[in-house]
Amino acid sequence: MKKIALFLLCMLALLNAEIALNPNFQNNSIFVLNKLSMHHSVSFMSGYSTSQNGFYQSLYTNHLDYDFSEKLKLRLDLNFVNYGQFQNNLSFSENNSQTKILPNLSLDYQPNENLRISFEIKQYNQFGF
Q: I need a surface site. Which of 26, 40, 80, 104 has the fewest CB within 10 A?
């Protein structure tokens, strides 16, 4: 929780710096819908071994991109992961299916071509697949 609070404070500080230093920054409203873009991705993988043990994982990701300005960009990936294991046969009624949400968040600030400041919070698939 401390990492998220620190990240949000840094994001607000960079946004404040961008507004103060850029006279063309439109500060009427911070969140403008035409600056938001969204796309999606889906994947599925499965494996089965000769010892008759198997696994599966499905992943749906919602990618959200928001450009506060040319120099300040926010990226959010919401990963919805469903995974499980099965043994002896392909019956999914005996599996141990679990679902997790793994968010990834990044804020990039590039005031000029020689300087880039990036804050990231990432969670990885810790399920062993």
A: 40
